[in-house]
Amino acid sequence: MRKPNSEPLDGSRAKAGRGGTFDPLLPGMPLDQIGQALASAYDALVSEGVPEHLAALVRRVKHTDLDVPRKAARLALVVEDDPDVRDLAEALLEETELSVVGCDSAEQALAVLRRCGGDVALVFADIRLAGQMDGIQLANAVATLWPKARLVVTSGVAPERCDEIPERAVFIAKPWRAFDVLVEAGRASDEPPPAVA
User: Fold this and answer.
1) Domain count, the chain
2) Which of 71, 130, 141, 183 is the most buried (most CB within 10 A)?
3) 1 by DSSP, 3-state: which?
4) What whole-number distance in Å separates Cα of residue 57 and Cα of residue 52?
5) What is the per-residue pLDDT for 49?
6) Response regulatory domain location, by residue (predicted)?
């Protein structure tokens, strides 16, 4: 936990609340700034119970220049290492109100989330991914750092680690039906984001 009167989580100088302390959850602070602040202070979260192996993977994510739409109202993030399946999911989600960004690894998805996590309405991720992090680890990172994003986890086989999938994530077995994916996209774009506790 940070000490009173310490520097804000995002490194900027912000107006202090009563008593001269910075509260990153002041009313009116946009959720994307909260997500960015949490991502930049991930080491502090580790000491409060986030698994070290997950924290180490998030810390290693490099900022990359991905083709992320500018000023998109809401984003759908498709995380799938099979290019044909990823293209299919992207084409399907492009028929919704969401702008779509495709990634082949959890690490690439986290780079997008660190850049514009507050705009991500839906994360649609396969469990088996290229890279060091799998879809379950990605879903747990998203649930912790970007709680307003709707999570959909998919796999061609029944997940062995069902108990590790975040409670609020939806599991859709492959081959998924277009209707099921569109229903989740509709919920992501229509429902208000969940409140941050």
Assistant:
1) 1
2) 141
3) coil
4) 9
5) 53
6) 75-197
> For 90-117, what is each residue's pLDDT tens digit?
999 999 999 999 999 999 999 999 988 8
Identify the CATH number of the domain in which residue 167 sits: 3.40.50.2300
Closest by alpha carbon to 75, among 115, 107, 37?
A: 115
Following CA atoms 133, 36, 112, 47 in sequence, which dihedral angle do they give, to the nearest 10 degrees? -10
pLDDT tens per residue across span 62-86: 444 455 544 446 899 999 999 999 9
Give pTM, 2 decimals: 0.63
Question: What is the DSSP annotation of 63-94?
Answer: P------TT-SSEEEEE-SSHHHHHHHHHHHT
Q: List, as own/partner pairs, every contact residues 33-39 make where C-beta atoms lie below 8 angstroms and the sequence separation is at least 24, other chains included.
A: 33/118, 34/118, 34/196, 35/113, 35/117, 35/118, 35/145, 35/146, 36/10, 36/114, 36/117, 36/118, 37/8, 37/9, 37/10, 38/9, 38/144, 38/145, 39/113, 39/114, 39/117, 39/145
Asked if the structure places residue 62 within a domain, the reply is no
What value does the mean pLDDT take over residues 128-146? 93
In a domain, 56, yes or no: no
Residue where the block lists tokens 């490099």: 62
Instruction: Supply the range of the domain harboring residue 82.
Output: 75-190
Residue 95 lies in a domain: yes
